[in-house]
Design goal:
The chain is of the alpha+beta class. The strands form six sheets. Strands 20, 21, 25, 26, 27, 28, 31, 32, 33 and 34 form a ten-stranded mixed beta sheet that branches. Strands 10, 12, 15, 17, 18, 23 and 24 form a seven-stranded mixed beta sheet that branches. Strands 3, 4, 5, 7, 8 and 9 form a six-stranded antiparallel beta sheet that branches. It is built from eight helices and 34 strands. It is globular, with a radius of gyration of 28 Å. The termini are far apart. 39% of the residues are buried. Helices cover 18% and strands 29% of the residues.
């Protein structure tokens, strides 16, 4: 009997071991689904795409796993999705290897609608389980869905100086509301032009900075959406908004010849939709019951020149309930921007990385130069820790390099001041960073402190569009590694809701030619698809009725030179989005405009085999010495006619491919 028990024990142990090993092997080979995205965004709120595109990522411990089919289900609630009740969409089993940009084909979606979805796949190595749930919500799809009014005041105040450098103070808005029932959900839609910061009951909403993304506001105005359910409480609540100038209020006045596109004074549009648990609804909208002032601490903000902040004018509690706003006045209804309101479908800017300074040196009596050891675009955060006296002014100047004597080199800034001013309020826990400007710098010169700052008192903040890393590069050659490092930091510093040419001087413009092929290389490092899809819309907005495309888009400068190379970026960016992201929707959306430009250029030089006009040519061809920007030797420059002709031929080949891709074979 004892022998039998031992025999059974070993048999049982063997079976369990085999089963364990088999289950372990199966567990290791399970196909998992991660990173579900809608319109390449994670759980986006307030989108305005009628048929959004869905994407997922397949992960497995095995190699050569290939999807052969998928099924998507979408529901109106998370509860229904968990029960597999697909009351919004059930794709059924679709035989396809496509896992990127799969177009939603469910019921027609309405403004404010929530959609919860998940996916499962079949592969050549096994099937996946259902993915975790993902979510998106719709924005305000029809103009009539907006019940809010644009509010503001279209004038400067006595402390403003808008003669040349546009030193205009920030506008502050507030509204108290009563919530008497239990909230089920509260969704807030906002467009604050040029930039906004949003607060509820004294707390900042969202991590975004310098939002919304800049556009040609005569054509397109972006709004953002926030779920503020957990920020509102039963009882009294307060909503506060601060507006900065951004690109909306012109940064330079009276330039000759006139090249700046001016839009007007800052203004606010805000709407909050509250749904209560008893099924009732309430709308909170911007109107003349909102209070406002411009006599707050941000005395001026100008992207080129910096921010002036007077902490002695801080209005403690202005964005919270029961604030005494006796000196505030009622906001007025102002003319709406000419542009169409659209949900912002690209990522907002955020503080993406913090940078500690490397060293501090005293370059003169009471003058301190801080070296962050790295050029970047963003801002600094300064802690006073009780240093200084109330009313003292600290001056911070920014530069990318130093002169031989250790002072800042600022000649490359042209007339950009790149200077912040901070007036001390004299509190122990005092700290500050600019709200509505960014600087391109490595060095910061600080004046006005009674004693030298500590490295612990300062922090750099790198700002660019929040996007996923797409890849990285490293090799055994230190020089190549440094080239990659420099390129990456340049890319990050120049992503500002649009790809700009530089982050430091009085330019910072979205030049088309800089990204003709640059966009493609950048896409291997950062997930820039939404930024460049947005930029295609900017280019389309800037196109004239005749078909001309400018050198800068959004159209902040009136630069229509009608070369071939710079406008060709319109086509090469669309090509990059298709090759790297499978985005054929952008090709379809812009095909007619690209075709219009092709015919426009053909008409301008009708009958010419070679394109003769090319103003920029070999822009920044390596010159004879590093002190020069352009070569003085014309023989180093490629013929403009050759560049234009070759580029236009390439454009025609791209258009041929686009026509095939979107089934416009009649154009081939």
């Amino acid at each position: 009997m004892k022998r039998k028990i031992i025999t059974y024990f070993f048999i049982f142990t063997g079976i369990c071991t085999a089963a364990f090993c088999k289950n372990k092997a199966l567990a290791g080979s399970v196909v998992q689904l991660k990173d579900l995205r809608c319109e390449l965004l994670n759980d986006p709120l307030g989108i305005d795409v009628a048929q959004p595109r869905l994407t997922w990522e397949i992960q497995s411990s095995q190699r050569s796993v290939m999807q052969v089919a998928y099924q998507i289900i979408a529901s109106s609630s998370l509860k229904k999705l968990k029960k597999n009740e697909a009351d919004v969409w059930n794709s059924g089993k679709v035989l396809s290897d496509k896992s990127v940009q799969v177009i939603y084909k469910g019921i027609a979606l309405k403004s404010g609608q929530n959609v919860f979805w998940k996916v499962r796949v079949w592969t050549n190595k096994g099937n996946s389980r259902w993915s975790d749930a993902a979510h998106w919500s719709m924005g305000l799809l029809q103009p009539g869905d907006w019940k809010a009014a644009w509010i503001g005041i279209d004038k400067a105040f006595p402390w403003d100086d808008v003669s040349v450098h546009s030193r205009l103070s920030s506008r502050y808005y507030r509204k108290e509301i009563a919530v008497n029932k239990k909230i089920k959900s509260a969704i807030l839609y906002i467009s604050g032009l040029g930039m906004y910061e949003l607060f509820i009951n004294g707390k900042k909403i969202g991590k975004q900075v310098l939002s919304p993304s800049p556009t040609d506001y005569d054509k397109t105005v972006m709004y953002n959406t926030f779920d503020v359910t957990h920020y509102l409480k039963q009882g009294d609540n307060a909503i506060g908004v601060t507006l900065g100038n951004g690109r909306y209020f012109i940064m330079r006045q009276n330039y000759k010849p006139k090249k700046w596109h001016s839009f007007g004074f800052p203004k606010l549009l805000l709407q909050t939709a509250i749904e209560y648990e008893d099924g009732s609804h309430q709308l909170i909208v911007s109107d003349t019951t909102w209070k406002m002032t411009a006599n707050g601490p941000v005395r001026s903000n100008n992207e080129y020149d910096g921010e002036n902040y007077d902490a002695t004018k801080e209005m403690n509690g202005w964005d919270d309930v029961h604030f005494n706003d006796g000196k505030w006045f009622n906001a007025g209804i102002v003319k709406a921007p000419a542009g169409k309101l659209k949900a912002q479908m690209n990522e907002n800017m955020q503080v993406m990385q913090t940078i500690r300074p490397k060293r501090i040196s005293e370059s003169g009596t009471g003058v301190y130069t801080i070296d962050f050891g790295q050029n970047f675009a963003g801002r600094i955060r300064l802690k006073l820790n009780g240093h200084g006296h109330r009313g003292d002014t600290i001056t911070l100047r920014y530069a990318e390099s130093l002169q031989p004597d250790g002072s800042l080199y600022v000649a490359n800034l042209r007339d950009a001041k790149a200077t912040d001013h901070y007036v001390i309020k004299g509190k122990k826990d005092e700290a500050w960073s600019p709200q509505f400007v960014y600087h391109g710098f490595r060095y910061v010169e600080i004046k006005g402190l009674p004693e030298g700052p500590s490295l612990l008192d300062l922090q750099g903040e790198l700002i660019f569009d929040k996007m996923q890393n797409a890849g990285s590069f490293v090799c055994s050659d230190s020089t190549l590694n440094q080239v990659y490092h420099n390129a990456l930091w340049s890319i990050m510093s120049d992503y500002k809701g649009m790809p700009v040419d530089c982050p430091q001087r009085n330019e910072r413009q979205p030049w088309l030619g800089d990204r003709t092929t640059g966009c493609y290389g950048e896409s291997f490092v950062l997930g820039n698809a939404k930024l460049y899809a947005k930029w295609l819309n900017d280019i389309q907005d800037a196109q004239t009725a005749e078909g001309s495309i400018p050198d800068v888009a959004p159209n902040f400068w009136f630069y229509y030179k009608d070369d071939v190379t710079w406008p060709s970026t319109y086509l090469t960016v669309a090509d990059m989005l298709y090759k790297q992201c499978g985005d054929s929707v952008s090709i379809a959306a812009h095909y007619a405009s690209m075709k219009k430009w092709i015919f426009y250029m053909q008409k301008k030089e009708m009958g010419k085999v070679r394109r003769s006009k090319e103003r920029y040519g070999d822009w920044c061809v390596p010159p004879e010495s590093k002190e020069l920007i352009h070569s003085k030797d014309p023989s180093r420059m490629t013929s403009g006619a050759l560049l234009a002709t070759a580029t236009f031929y390439h454009d025609l080949k791209l258009m041929e491919m686009f026509a095939e891709r979107i089934h416009q074979s009649k154009d081939i």
